[in-house]
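Q: I have 545 residues here and want to know how they pack in 3D. Can you give me a structure?
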Amino acid sequence: MFKFLQRKSLVKRGLASNKTRRRRGSNEMLRNLEHATWMKVAIFVTFVAGLALLIFSGQQPEPTRNFVFALLLLATAIAQLWINQPNTFQRNSRVFLVFGIIYLQLAATKLLIVLCDSGLFSILKPETAWLIAPYAFAPLVLCVLLGRNHGLYGAVFVSLFSSILLNKMDAPMLAIGLISGFTAVLLTQTVRRRSRLIRAGLCVGLGIWLLALTFGLIGPLNLFDPVANDWPMIGIQSLFAIGNGIVTAMLVGGALPILEQLFQITTDISWLEASDLNHPLLRRMTIEAPGTYHHSLVVANLAESAAEAIGANATLCRVCSYFHDIGKLVKPDYFTENMNFERNPHDDLAPTMSALIIIAHVKEGVDLALKDGLNQQVIDVIQQHHGTSLVFYFYQRALQQYEDAREGGKIMKMREEDIPEVSEESFRYSGPKPQTRESAIISLADMVEGASRSLEKPTPQKIEQLVNELIDQRLADHQLDECDLTLRQLKTIAERFRFTLMNMLHTRIAYPKEGKTSTVRDDGARPDVMAVTKRPASAPPVSAA
């Protein structure tokens, strides 16, 4: 209340802007629920209640015995998730997603069993239920949303729970469930197009069909007397088995956008859709900040290549690299890659003001990203891609001016305390430091790409030395302390950067101009084919921002 009145007073006096910076909405209650122990217990209790409903409904013999087995199996599933996937276990939304998807498949399986046993449809017989049960639903959803290990986890435990619904541990049914789930996970480890889901579903359907033939669930099939076989029935059963996988994949493809929105998860499919260069912010960049646009494309290539080499999310790196410098759209002319060759706007500014403008592009980028509704992970990368690093060029310039002022002060007999000291904190980004491998890769790629533009006559040795020195500087400055990159991975990243930069900065043959017969000078030396157009003498290096 008082802050609002104070701000209003400042606006009237012209000492404050009437605009406020956009901030990410933070819901304290949701954050508390995400890690609350009682919420996790409530999820498990709800799952137990749901299992009881499925087991005790219908005409199952010995339902109490089956329910006890289900409870023991649930305890094993919880322990397995806690031990092997601690990050997932700590987040209640992820726990709810895992057990919710498993229960959804169990409920669908139970419904199909009831329908086939009821005799309402002549085409659905009791044994047909195990040809049309959605074996691959939970493995597919969990694999695409959370990764391969979660998909395998879902395949194992949903198959075991499904066997309990059958009232006994039926080996053929358990084998079909496990093999179908493993096949689905194997074929969807990297899904970048929805058609890949359909292809995986077709393979799962063919696997169910082959297993059903092997275990005698289709038929009876008499190979010695083909005429005696009921081919129409065998055809319908085969259609059920093969169509099972395809229909399951189609349902998963339709459910993914909803689940992504509900649980704030972005899959490779969505990242690929977000990589469209016709995005309004990127189109603005091509016109207002073409140098930054080209810089972002090169950073995307560097980051994607390095991410693939260490097993990080390469598609995420590419998309986030496109948007990491959108804050430069606010004052594009103050960044070297967008400067014209007539004047340098920093010539008229103090180093502290220049650094303030350079540093502000991070906050301006977050503001634009929030306004445009970009993905939260993109916003995180925009905030983290400079960490708390130092705007070194202007810091050195400020130190030089400070030393000059001290020398002049001695001549003018000024007191040293009257000369303001240079604070390093004023020339550092506000952070935070990179929190993920992908954010750290983009941070390194951004730095390396900017510095590589200053290389004249690049050679493999110069590029390798530059990359290694820059990464060592980030390590020494503790900018990579909060992400889980290892030294081995950093070495791999440096090698990928060197390889990619060598391909981009390779020299070309200097073709002779029209009317000249040779490009070789009298002294036999080759012309400088990598000569760089000169920037204004006072322009900061490209890597300054």
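Q: Anything worth noting?
A: The chain has two domains: 30-265, 277-391+428-506. The chain is about 65% helix and 0% strand.
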